[in-house]
Amino acid sequence: MASDMQTNISGQEAPHSSAPLGEIILETKDLTKHYGGVHALEGANFTLRKGEHVAIMGDNGAGKSTFVRQITGVEERTRGEIIFDGKPVHFAGPLEARNAGIETVFQTLALADQLDVPDNLFLGREIIKWKLGPFSILDYKAMRQRTLDALEKTGVKIPNIRGSIERMSGGQRQCVAIARTATFHSKLTIMDEPTAALGVQETAQVENIIRTLKEAGEPLILVSHNMRQVMDLVDRIVVFRRGRICADLKKEETNGEDVVAYITGAKTQAGYEDAA
Amino acid sequence: MADQTSHGIGGLTFDKSKRSWPNEFNVFLALILIILLFEALGQILPYMNNQSMLFDFNDARDGTILNMARIKIIILQVSIIGIISLGVTQVIISGGIDLSSGPLVGAAAMIVMSFAQTELVNGNPNPKAVFGAWSFDLPVLVPLIVGLVFGAMIGAINGFFIAFARIPPFIATLGMFLVCRGISQWWTKGQPVSFPTEGYAWIGTGMMPVVWFIGLAILLHLIMRYTVYGKHTYAIGSNEEAARMSGINVRRHKVMVYMIASMLAAFAAIVLSSKNLTAQAGMGQFYELYAIAMAVIGGVSLTGGRGSIIGTVLGAMVFGVIQSGFTYIKLDAFYQLMAMGAIIIGAVVLDQYRQRRAAART
Ligand SMILES: Nc1ncnc2c1ncn2[C@@H]1O[C@H](COP(=O)(O)OP(=O)(O)OP(=O)(O)O)[C@@H](O)[C@H]1O
Ligand SMILES: [Mg+2]
Description:
The complex is a heterodimer.
Chain A: H1 2-12, E1 24-35, E2 38-49, E3 53-57, H2 64-71, E4 79-84, E5 87-88, H3 94-100, E6 102-105, H4 117-121, E7 128-130, E8 137-138, H5 140-154, H6 170-182, E9 188-192, H7 200-215, E10 220-223, H8 227-233, E11 236-241, E12 244-250, H9 256-264
Parallel strand pairs in A: 3-10, 3-11, 6-9, 9-10
Antiparallel strand pairs in A: 1-2, 1-4, 4-5, 7-8, 11-12
Chain B: H1 23-44, H2 68-93, H3 101-114, E1 120-121, E2 124-125, H4 141-163, H5 169-187, E3 193-194, H6 198-203, H7 208-226, H8 228-238, H9 240-245, H10 250-276, E4 278-279, H11 287-297, H12 309-328, H13 333-361
Antiparallel strand pairs in B: 1-2, 3-4
Helix pairs in contact in B: 1-12, 2-7, 2-8, 2-10, 2-11, 2-12, 3-4, 3-5, 3-10, 4-5, 4-10, 7-8, 8-10, 11-12
Bound molecules: adenosine-5'-triphosphate and magnesium ion (MG).
C-alpha cells in the first residue's frame, strides 16, 4: 500500500514532463564555497531527479561554475552536503566523481593542449591492450576508432584527429570536450556552457546529443546563457544571482522575460528572499 | 561510418604528405650541420693540418672510412650522462626540473661502491675498505639494489616535496643537490672508495655504458610512447589542471616521475664508478646541467608537455660531438665551459622561439 502511494506522489510532482520523473539522483543542502573573502556560492539547496534536465542560468560570476566544481569534487566545499544516488558523497577529486557516474564538460574544457584528440578523449581512462599497472600498454587503434565514432555524433569537422589540440579552433576543442562526456554512459551529465563557442550547425548537433540523453533518461545539468536553447531543451530552470539560488522555475510556468527578470534581480521568487 | 584509415572527420581536407617534419628531424639536421662545421674548421684552421674529425680515409687502420676510435669515444663519453638525461627528459616533459642528479651520482657512487668492494687487492687487504668483513665480495646484485633503492628514496623525497608540499621543483631539487653533495662527502669523510669485485667492474667495462644507454633509451622510449605512464606524463606537463580534472592522480604520478629519474641517475652512478673502478665524492659535477642540456638541445620544452626520448638521444649526440669537437680543434678547457654555457642558453632561446611560433599558429 505504502509503496503505491509513493509512486503516485512522485508522479504528481512532475506534471511538467511527459515522462514521469524518477527518484532524486542529486541533492545539495546548504552547499557553500568561499574563496577567501569571496562568497562565490552561498547555501545552495538543489535537487535533480532521474531523467530530469535542468538549466542553470545567471550572470557572469553568479557562481554557476563554482557550483559545478563543488559537485564534481574539483574543489573542496566550505560547507554543506551533497547527496548523490542516495548517499552523501565527499569526492576527493574529479576521478571519484567520474567513477561514481558524473560526467562533466568543464567551462575551461580541461584539455591537454599538446596531446591529440583521441588522447584527450580517453585521458584518465585509456583503452588498454596489456595490463601492466601504471605501465599498461595503450590500444591506440581502438581509441582512434572510438574517437571517430564519438565525434561523428557531434557533427564537428576536424581535418586530422592526430594533430595536437592546441592547433584547433575554439569550437573544435569544445566538440572534443563534449564528445568526451557523450562517449561514456553516466548517471549524471553536467555541461558548463557547452555551446559557447560553437557555430550554428555544431550547436544544433550538441543540442541533439542533449536530446538523446533525455530520451535515454539520463539526467543533465546544463549551464547556459542561451535562452532559446534553455527553453528548447530543459524541464526546469534554476537561476543563480551573486552566489545564491534566487529562483527555481518550471519551464511551463515561465518565459524568457520572466527568467531575465530573475537573473537581473528585478524579481525574486518567494522562498528565496535572502538572495535579494 | 568513419573508416579505419582516415584520421579526419567532417569532410575537411587533410593532406598527409604535407605533414610538418617531426622536431627530432630538425635535431638530426643540426647534428649533421655541426659535424660539417667541425670538419670545415679542420680544413680551415691553419694549425689543424687538414685533419678530419670523424673520417679517416686511411682504411688500413680500422677497415672503415670513419675514425671509429673517435666515434666510440664520443658515444662512450655521452652514455653515462645520457642515462641521466633520459630520466630528466620525462621530468621536464611533466613540467618539472631535476637539479639533484649530478650530486646524486656522487652520493650513490660512494654508497654503492662500499657494497661492491673485494677483500683482497693483490693478496693484501683492501686499503680502501669502508665496512667490515661482511661487506666484501658480495654478489653484484647487492650494490645494484642498494643503489637503485637509494635513488628511489631520493626521488621519492623530491617528488613528495614537489607534489604534496607544492614546493617548486627548482627549489626542492636544488635543496636535494646540496643534501646529496653533503652525503657524498660525509660518507667516507672525503676518502675515495675503490677496488670493486670483478662482477661489479664488468657493469661499466669497455663499451658497456653504451649498451646500457641504448637499452635504457629504448625502454624509456617505449614507456613514454606506448604506456599510460607516458601519456599521463605528457598530459600533466601539458595542462596539469586538465590532467587532474580528467581523473589522473597527478601527485602520485609526479612522485613516480621523480623516482624514475633518480633511479636512472643512481644507475648512471653505478656504471660510472664501475667504469672508473673507484667512487669519489666529487663525481658527477655539472652532470645535472649537462643532462638538462642534452634534453633541451633534443627539443624537450622546458615549459613541459613537449619532447621525446628520441630527441634527447639525438641531443646527447649533438652534445657529445660539440664537446669532442672542441677538443679536436684544441679549444682550451675554460673556453669549452664558456662555449657549452652559450650553447645551452642558445638551445633554450630556440625553444622559446619555437613556442612563440607554435602559439602564433593557433
Ligand atoms: N579560484 C578562485 N579564487 C577566487 N575567486 C574565485 C575563484 N573561482 C571563482 N571565483 C569567483 O567566484 C565567483 C563565481 O565564479 P563562477 O566561475 O562560479 O561564475 P559563473 O557563474 O560560472 O560565471 P560565468 O558565466 O562567467 O562562467 C566570481 O566572482 C569569481 O571571480
Ligand atoms: Mg562559469
